Amino acid sequence: MKSLILLPGMNGKTSLYARVRPHFPELITPEWIEPEVNEPLVDYARRFAETLRPQITEPCMLGGTSFGGMVAHELAAALGLGSCLLISTVRTPAELPPDWQALRHLTVAGEEALWGQPRFKTRFLCWAAWATLTWELSDGAAAVETRLLHGDLDRTFPLECVQPDQVVVGGGHVLPMTHPEAVVAFISQSRFPSLEA
């Protein structure tokens, strides 16, 4: 039996995939584990990999939306997967849009510096924002083949900042909710790599 794992965005709501789930009975949508204080994204993904490994059967396909795509990219490397599906996200930190990059000066003081920002209302959101802003793509993740599905109306990560493999016309940032048919087709066209480790 194959495994399909899709990670949610920063808010952790796995209901993001409610309209995709009926097409993939093997779908696993894990909840986030608690991050350590000022834990880099790469380290978080490695710890997360150990909690997911027992749930995974071969072959396995991994993906994620928004922040979940960034974690999935690093998680794919930690699990020894050769490929990863990305939805409404960025492949590298260099693709983060200017409004995100403008916040980088706050990261020197750690995740606590983001607690006063109105859009980051919980400790997890503060950490996730900090981890995004301080993310350095690991060598392992750089070797992972990625496929990116992106909406042309995405305001969080505007289309001009990324290089998608497929563009959803009229699609915003939460494609699994608004354009599930495009997400289902995107997943269905992808292959299931085997776990190496």
TrEMBL record:
Every AB hydrolase-1 domain range: 39-185
InterPro entries associated with the record: AB_hydrolase_1 (IPR000073), AB_hydrolase_fold (IPR029058)
Listed name of the protein: Pimeloyl-ACP methyl ester carboxylesterase
Species in which this protein is naturally found: Armatimonas rosea
